[in-house]
Protein 1
Amino acid sequence: MAIPASPRFLQAARPDALTADLRRQLTDCWVAVANTGGAVIAADFPMPPVSAREVAPVTDRLVAGLDPARSRILMAAYGDTLAGWLVVRRDPHPLIAHCGVVNHVQTRPRFRGRGIGTALMERVRTVAREEMGLERLQLSARAGLGLEEFYARLGWAEVGRWPGALRVAPGDDRDDILMSISL
């Protein structure tokens, strides 16, 4: 069976919008990406290598925080298989409620090279602007992986860096690159 040229997009804005299978696939994707060096950890995420047993509670907490006005998961799928996903959030504070943050941009390793990341990043701009009423998005990327070049090709601008802020391993400190885009 041939894989379609472009993915189908799904969106979850409420915890009950995700089936048990989709939650499992989010966790499995997160495990695979983290264990292949992807920069998709969270504050409560264990350092790789990780297992689904360790990541499932983190996925559950992320899903529990979904709210149509503040947080959504965007997913790309081929058939019933999740190929990649990301989260877009709005801060409720009125000074910055017009801005959103993109987190956890990831593509399942076996789907890399098919434009999933690009498709998700283009889709998040539309969702953020048209459905969430956001005017600007920001994200943070780990230096040393070529991520700043990837985002720059999509129109994102580097607006700052926290030098050496990310300790990947002893003796391997990386810059945390701050990026932004107007919608």
Note: DSSP finds four helices and seven strands in the chain.
Protein 2
Amino acid sequence: MGEPITVSIRREVDPARISEATAWVQTGVNLANKYPGFLGSGWVRAGEASHVWHMLYRFANEETLEAWERSPERTWWLSMGEGFVRSERSRRRTGIEGWFDEPATGSVPVTDAAAPGGDVDVDVATAPPRWKQAVAIWLGFFPVNLLFAYLVAPVPGWSGLPIWLRALATTLVLTPIMTYWVLPWVTRVLRGWLHRARP
């Protein structure tokens, strides 16, 4: 089924229409929540006076994300924001950083027009420090690489191959194993340590 995909979006909104934009963003979250594979979302503004919004949402895999992105509900929802969304940038995270991301979750109360600047309650976990990511990758890669080396050592002619050809074969075999099985397993096992709050 593939790995979870996180989409990161930055939107600049007309500052005169913040209340309307708040309701609009929450409507989008509610619509996406009804789609299979939706794993959560969160959105925040940089500050009470800010007109820049940051949003994360995650789906279980490419297929479920594309089903949402091609849906008539999303098309309708985006058209409703054309009047006050001035710019938008988005980025999909499916590479190495996606292995370490926690699903973005959260709830945001819709701000009433009579009371702008309401509280935003969002819980969006950040990726662990790079050194922890490096340790997790090494803990997965070392035993897999060592096992592979032991398995191919008795293969006739293996040691006589040029080093670049042995490296090519090793990485061709181990990269998908690391990507689809080992690293997801390692990050699940180490999740408590990877995402432990810093003092």
Note: Confidence is low (pLDDT under 50) at residues 103-125.
